[in-house]
Structures are given as structure tokens and as C-alpha cells.
Specification:
heterodimer, A: mainly alpha, B: alpha/beta, eight-stranded mixed sheet, seven-stranded antiparallel sheet, 10 helices, 19 strands, globular
Chain lengths: 129, 330
């Protein structure tokens, strides 16, 4: 998502390219992001952005993340160049904070889950013996 | 083209019940009935097409107006903000959307317009041969006289110059014509037929366009729409002093109005223009009222003479009818 936002920021500042061609030309390695962008284009064509339409077919996403993504896609394209750039930069910061939080959670919970997995594995093998 | 930007129910009525060829303007005002101008006459838009009764009219909300602007910008307001700053948006086919809302300024400069509350959607038309009635008066020995087309808004100035350029091509006036299309209306985003010899420079200011065009494209004739500011007049003089003919338009309804406009008194006194074509909406948009020369003396054209004869004949016929009516009464 951060990479996508950086690309949008670059394209709109360099050539004031419209959103549709930018999104059409962007292919992410993340399947979820590709679905999200495709859904967003569908929403634009329909003329209505709803959470159901925007997140259709997406699984690995939390409600909190949905709220942020929805508010981003609901407002993108509605500003002048300066406002749009600021909006994107603001959301990049929000996503960076999310990234940091998940990193912290990873360092905090990863050893715990590894240990739990090992213990459960040992218990299962003991039961089977 | 309008179906892409208008709310579904409104677009459907316009597409199915009214012919786009008849529409001049669509006026949208927040929480007010939609007004459609058909052949210069105002009507309310209704589910069945048009109506003269407000109770049958379709109303539009502010949210719908905002969404029209967003759709017209290609879902990217930032990409058209330079147009928005100047109070309009042009979409495919040269459809111009005039914007009304809250103007955001900073340091005496317009930054953008937000909070849109009213729109004026103008549909351009190609009216073939509409310039022919004045054509012979505006050309002389394969050169085009410096001409100013004068009329109030909505009287067919742009349609006239569009057809004039087309007629030059049709009648094999092999000239390099530069069209300075400040709002993309003359060329309609490339969808209008402007003949074989037109180079189109779109969305540039007149001052930049005249200079750039003369240097790079060496035109014989420059065609531009809606002169307004002092900068426009300076740019115009620059072009004329470079030996390039100019065909331009301006908003005014009479010679007096024209003289009262800033910068035009001098322009008229110095005889920069040798022809003035006055249009009106008297018999529908594009009615040719008169053609004047550089001394602001009316010069004849066959259509003008025809019109006078037509008027006299109509008066005569009416007179006979009245006589017959009174005779029957007695």
C-alpha cells in the first residue's frame, strides 16, 4: 500500500495523471491490494463507494484497517494538487505507524506462539505414543 | 457523454427523452428544479422529458452536484484544478461545465473552488453553414479580414467561428489556421470537424498562446474565443502587428456596449478590426443581426436584405389579415 501511495503521489505531482490510469497501470505483488484497487475502480464506475463493494472478496483485513482504507478511498481525488499530496503523505504516515505496531506485535508475540506450537506438538506426540 | 457524469436518473431522462441536438444548456442549482434550454427556450426537466410546471420537475441535490463535478474531473479534481480556478470544466465533446460555489483565495489568487452549489452545462453544436451568410464579407482575395464576432452569451459565437473555420477548408482557402482553444470548446476535444487546415492549441492563455503559436506554427489566421482582459487585448495587438489575421469573439450586444468595454475603445479607434459581426438570439441562437466595417458602418449582406424583405412581407401579410378581419366584423 505504501508503494502504491508513493507511486500515486509521484504521478499526480509529475503529470497530474488521473486516478484511473494510475490504478490501471499498477500491479502489486499483493493479491489483496490488487483486489482492493479493482474494487475501487468498480466503485468509481458505479458512482458509489460502500464498504461492501470496496472490500468484496477480501479476507485478510481487520475492521480497523477497513475503516482507514475506506476513509482514504472515499476521499481520494476530491482535493486540489496540494491537498491531494498532503492527504497521501498523511496516509503514508498512518500506514507506517501500522507497520511499526505490527513489527512490535511480531517481536512481542512471535516467540510466544513458537513456544506454544512446540508445546502443543510435544503434547500431541506424547498422546500418540 | 453526459450519461457518464450525471446522476443515473437524470442522465437517463436526457438520453432517452430529449435529443442532445436540441439542448443548449442545462442549469443545475442545489435543491432547485433542473432547467433545460431547448433551442434557446427554458423548460424544467421532468421524468417524461420537459415540462413548464415546477410540480413535475426533477430537483437536484447539492450532493448530486458535487458528484457531477467529481465525475467530470475523471475522479481526480487535482488534475483539472487549473480549469476549476477559472470557473469551468470541459469534458469530452467540448461540453463546458460552468462552476458556482465557494471560491478559495490566497494572497489575492484563486486557489480553487469548493462547495459547489450550481452548474451550467453548455452543449456545443455544429451548425453547418451558419457562417455562410457573412462569409463573403469576412474574406478578401484569399486573406481573412480581422474580424470580431460580437454577441451576448449563448448567441452562437463559438458555433459561428467553428463553422467559419470549417467553411474555409471546404472552400479551399489553403491557410494555416491556428485555433487558440482556451477552454477546449471550439475543437470539442478534437470531436468537432474543423476542416483540413486547423492547428489546435488547447487550454493555454491567450497571451502565451498567441506568442507561442506565432513563433512555432506560423499561422495566417488565429481564431480565438471570448476576449476579455487587457492581457487578451495586448496579445491580440501583438498578433495583428505580426501580420497575422485574427478572428475573435467578445461578449457585447451593441456597438455602445463594445465601446464601453475596457481596452476596446482604443481597439476600435485604431481600427484593428475591419469587420464586426453581431449575432443575437432574436430568431434563435446564431441570428445574424448585422455586419459592420472598420468605421462601424453597417454593410449589406444578402441575408440582411432578405431579412428586411421578409420582415416587410410579414408586416404586409399581417396588415392584410387585419383588414380582412375588420371587414368580416363589419
Amino acid at each position: 500500500m505504501k508503494l502504491f501511495l508513493n507511486k500515486v503521489n509521484l504521478d499526480i505531482n509529475f503529470s497530474k495523471e488521473k486516478l484511473k490510469p494510475i490504478i490501471d497501470g499498477y500491479i502489486s505483488s499483493s493479491k489483496e491490494l490488487n483486489i482492493l484497487l479493482k474494487n475501487f475502480l468498480n466503485c468509481l464506475t458505479e458512482g458509489n463507494i460502500t464498504t461492501n463493494l470496496l472490500f468484496a472478496g477480501m479476507k485478510l483485513i481487520l475492521d480497523d484497517e477497513k475503516n482507514i482504507l475506506f476513509s482514504f478511498f472515499k476521499s481520494i481525488g476530491h482535493f486540489d494538487l496540494q491537498g491531494q499530496t498532503k492527504q497521501i503523505e498523511n496516509y503514508i504516515k498512518i500506514f507506517e505507524n501500522y507497520e511499526k505496531q505490527t513489527e512490535i506485535e511480531k517481536t512481542k508475540f512471535a516467540p510466544l506462539f513458537t513456544k506454544l506450537g512446540l508445546i502443543i506438538g510435544v503434547i500431541i506426540s506424547l498422546i500418540l505414543i | 457523454m453526459l450519461g457518464k457524469i450525471l446522476p443515473l436518473h437524470i442522465g437517463k431522462v436526457i438520453d432517452e427523452k430529449i435529443s442532445l441536438n436540441q439542448i443548449n444548456e442545462i442549469r443545475l442549482r442545489a435543491n432547485q428544479p433542473i432547467v433545460v434550454f431547448l433551442n434557446g427556450q427554458p423548460f424544467y426537466l421532468s421524468e417524461k422529458g420537459v415540462t413548464s410546471k415546477t410540480e413535475n420537475a426533477i430537483y437536484i441535490t447539492k450532493e448530486e452536484i458535487e458528484s457531477i463535478v467529481f465525475n467530470a474531473s475523471g475522479f481526480s479534481i487535482y488534475s483539472v484544478n487549473e480549469q476549476i480556478k477559472r470557473g469551468f470544466l470541459v469534458i469530452d465533446g467540448g461540453v463546458r461545465i460552468g462552476l458556482c460555489g465557494t471560491v478559495v483565495s490566497d494572497d489575492n489568487q484563486v486557489k480553487t473552488i469548493t462547495n459547489f452549489s450550481a452548474l451550467n452545462i453548455r452543449i456545443p453544436h455544429e451548425v453547418k453553414n451558419c457562417s455562410l451568410s457573412a462569409f463573403s464579407l469576412l474574406v478578401s482575395d484569399m486573406t481573412i479580414r480581422n474580424t470580431l464576432i460580437v454577441s451576448p452569451p449563448g448567441a452562437g459565437k463559438t458555433t459561428f467561428i467553428r463553422d467559419f473555420v470549417y467553411q474555409l477548408s471546404e472552400q479551399n482557402y489553403c491557410l494555416n489556421i491556428l485555433i487558440l482553444d482556451e477552454r477546449g470548446e471550439i475543437s470539442g476535444g478534437g470531436e468537432m470537424n474543423l476542416g483540413k487546415f486547423a492547428d489546435i492549441l488547447s487550454f493555454t492563455t491567450k497571451s502565451k498562446g498567441f506568442e507561442q503559436g506565432i513563433r512555432a506554427l506560423s499561422p495566417n489566421l488565429i481564431v480565438t474565443d471570448e476576449l476579455g482582459s487587457i492581457e487578451d487585448i495586448h496579445a491580440l495587438k501583438y498578433a495583428m502587428n505580426c501580420g497575422v489575421s485574427v478572428l475573435a469573439t467578445v461578449h457585447a450586444s451593441s456597438v455602445e456596449d463594445l465601446k464601453a468595454k475596457e481596452g476596446f475603445k482604443e481597439l476600435l479607434a485604431e481600427k484593428y478590426f475591419s469587420r464586426f459581426v453581431f449575432l443575437s438570439t432574436r430568431q434563435g441562437p446564431g441570428t445574424l443581426e448585422a455586419v459592420y466595417n472598420e468605421n462601424l458602418t453597417r454593410i449589406s449582406s444578402w441575408s440582411w436584405i432578405y431579412e428586411i424583405f421578409y420582415d416587410y412581407f410579414a408586416c404586409f401579410a399581417l396588415h392584410i389579415c387585419w383588414l380582412w378581419f375588420f371587414k368580416v366584423l363589419h
